[in-house]
Write a structure and sequence with these properties.
Blueprint (H helix, E strand, L loop, with lengths): L2 E2 L5 E4 L4 E4 L3 E4 L8 E4 L4 E2 L19 H13 L4 H14 L4 H14 L1 H4 L3
Antiparallel strand pairs: 1-4, 2-3, 3-6, 4-5
Length: 122
């Protein structure tokens, strides 16, 4: 199974209302020893999970899924793959983090339906 090399460590940047990755981490796609590795650098800015305020009672911005959300933000920012592959990697990463099935599916469907909005911004 895929894996993250380190846990998520972020710092809140109040003036930007964003989080900054404090400790860089890698994610191996597909399997633990995969040669396909994504490196999220220290200093990368993220909003964690982009959950609309009305839905935060069900899925908060911060939770088991947070590191997968940061990885997904990075993938969208750098456009390392097409949008669908970025979303599938997000789904895989949430499974690695043991996010519940209903939450993984809900978040995956949300990025498939609405991810075109942030995808088109850069």
């Amino acid at each position: 199974m895929s894996n993250f090399t380190k846990g998520l460590v972020v710092t809140w940047i109040p003036i930007r209302r964003m989080f900054s990755v404090y400790v860089s981490f890698d994610y191996h796609i597909g399997s633990e020893n995969s040669d396909e590795v994504i490196s999220v650098p220290e200093g990368f800015m993220t909003d964690l999970a982009s959950i609309p305020p009305v839905a935060r009672w069900m899925i908060p911005k911060l939770g088991k899924h947070a590191q997968a959300a940061v990885l997904h933000d990075y993938l969208y920012n750098k456009k390392l793959f097409d949008r669908k592959k970025c979303d599938v990697i997000f789904l895989e990463a949430m499974k690695v983090l043991r996010v519940s099935l209903w939450k993984r599916r809900t978040m995956f469907r949300a990025v498939r339906m609405f991810g075109w909005i942030p995808w088109g911004k850069k």
